[in-house]
Each structure stands twice: as structure tokens, then as C-alpha cells.
Amino acid sequence: MHHSVSEPGSVQEWVEDVGDKALRGLMAWLSEAYFRVETSGMENIPQSGPVILVANHSGAWALDGFILNEVLDRDLPRPVDIMASSLVFKFPVVASTARKAGIFENDPTVGLDRLAAGRAVGLFPEGFAGVRKPFRQRYRLRTFSTGFAVTAMRAGAPVVPVSIVGAEEAYPKLGEVDFLAQLTGLPYFPVTTLLPLPSKWLISFGEPIPAPVRPDSFAERAAAARLLCDEAQATVQKMVDRDRARRTSPFH
């Protein structure tokens, strides 16, 4: 009697497939029913051509990246590839889901190849500094890295500022546990709630900021990139402040 032999990796693929469906279903439920995400200004995202979306980063466990991806995937006609920390790809099921959703690992060129192919790229220029800040400093943006601005000039891509309000209250960062960070290999291990709190989320997309023509000299390019970066950060901060004032409370 012939016994079929499972192909190597088939169990892992099945686990990843089940996990992928469960995680995507969870993100959809969180965005629609739990956080009741409201979006505005999505029409500001160009329908074609290269574009970079830059958003503020917040909340102890950086849930905002997955929620932003879910909202864009659901409501935007074109795909957006979101750049994430390499930590996301250390967890098999999360990594599989991320790749299928177009999330890609931190790239020194900030997705230049994708932009050159006319794609849209999303990122969080604050990096870990954004999610690591204490709750008392919530929604105070940390300095944006200029990498996206350098890439925007090289690709001729406009920059769309994105404001995310709600993530700080969903996972408020109250402290850190150093030994757990060392044990898990994470940059930091936050003290926060076990499950996310049902905060009200507002995600806004601002008008595109055109990338300047790339100067010839290095010094001029560096200065132009810094100006573009600062303008994007200032715009996102204004949008965040505006949207915070729109909520009657963090949970309504």
C-alpha cells in the first residue's frame, strides 16, 4: 500500500496560512469594530506614479503599522508597500502575513527600487524613537530621519504626510523592563496593557509635498533633504494636533 509523504515545509505553510488568515481577520476587526478607525484625505494620495507616505509612529507595541496597512489595503485603489523594522520578520506567522501584505524589511534606500517602478511606499521616519517615548510625551513627534527625503528626491516622488491618532492610548507606554528586552532581543520591552485599549483612531492624509529637483552638489542635496524632511515632520505634527482636538475624548 502506497503511503503519501508530506512535502517538507507543508505543515509550516499550513500553519502560516492559518495564522495569516487569523491575523488579517484580527486587524480588520480591530480597525473597523474596536478602534472604529475614521480616515480622511485619502484622495490626496496620487492614483499613480511613485509616492512616499510618511506617518507618525506611536503606541508601545507599534500596532499603528498594521492598522495603517489594513486601512490602505481596504480603501485605497492602489497598493502601498510599507517599510517595517527587521524585528517584524523574526516572528514566522507575522513575517508571512507582512510579506503577503506588501510590508517589506527596512531598506537603506527606503524602497527606491519600488518607487522607480512607480509604486507607493509608506514608512515611519521616527523609527523606534516614536514608539519608545513615554506616555506623558504622547504625540510629540521625534526627529524624522532624512532617508525618505533623500529617496524622494532621487525618485521624484511627492511626500504625503499621514497623521495617526489613537495608537498612543491603545498601548500607552508606562515604562520599560530592561532584562526582558535583553531576554527577547528587543530594543526595549514596554510596560503597557496586556491587551490594547479601545481608543478612537483617526487617520488623516495630507496634501502631497512635491520633492525638489535633486541638486548637483552633495551639500545642496543634504540641505534640500533636510528641508523636505522638516516640512513633512512639521506638517504631520500639525495634523496630529488638529486630529487630537477633534476627539471629544481618547475613547470616543
UniProtKB/TrEMBL annotation:
Keywords: Acyltransferase, Transferase. InterPro entries: Plipid/glycerol_acylTrfase. CDD domains: LPLAT_MGAT-like. One of its GO terms (cellular component) is membrane. GO terms for molecular function: acyltransferase activity. Residues 51-167 form the Phospholipid/glycerol acyltransferase domain. It holds the Pfam family Acyltransferase. This is Acyltransferase.
